[in-house]
Amino acid sequence: MPEGDAIFRTARTLNRAMAGREVVRFESVFPALTRVHEDAPIIGRTVERVTAAGKHVLVHFSGRLVLRTHMRMNGSWHIYRPGERWRRPRRDMRLMIATREFEAVGFNVPIAEFLDERSAARQDDLRLMGPDLLGDQFDEAEAIRRFRERDSQPVADVLINQRVVAGAGNIYKSEVLFLCGVDPFAPVSLINDDELRRILVTARKYLKANVTRPRGGIVTYTGYRRGARGAGERHYVYGRARKPCRRCGAAIRVRAEGPNARLTYWCPSCQPRR
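-> structure tokens emitted (274 positions)
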């Protein structure tokens, strides 16, 4: 699943290409989107702005209509000039928004829905979303309060719960907890508030740093050099199972945890059990 920095870059790219432009063509394979388009056409509306909210991309149209998309594991948005050849086959297209200048194509996007003001206020994934780690006004106190509501759960699972804080995924989970020296399997009850603040500050620091990377991708390892190849070359622990820790030399471990069996990487020496 794309992490929050990738979603932020996607929204920024879409906004630069589409904002302020009139929609001249709209296609979708989703029946619900097609019904809305038939009743209240998207063609003729203006794309007012495109924003990111956690892991959601929100396309705001004139007439107070919002398109919410979520990429899950394989979805992506591409931008093309009219007539330019797509880099993905047409069978992967799920929706397309075209202006005279650009085409925004959503490939393998699993979740897409139109929302008006009332339904947007009721949409649980948005309404219940925790403070956005990439938000300009990040509410640290509220984030810590939400962590505390899950005191019995492993801190690694809580960090990627989008209803606690929005934006972090599997890579940041492992990397941030390593950088903070925190046992990923420790219940939140064993993590004090100062440690939680350090976790949140570190997550925001690296998410923001990677948003500005010109080539994209997630880099957390300070010794990374451009051109390095292989899984985990950009990271301290993620993707480096059985390789030596970059700090102490101990073998990095990996374990599948939680209902979705997501992988957690950690150093047993730098992140001792509590």
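Helices lie at 4-18, 31-39, 117-122, 124-127, 140-148, 155-159, 170-179, 193-211.
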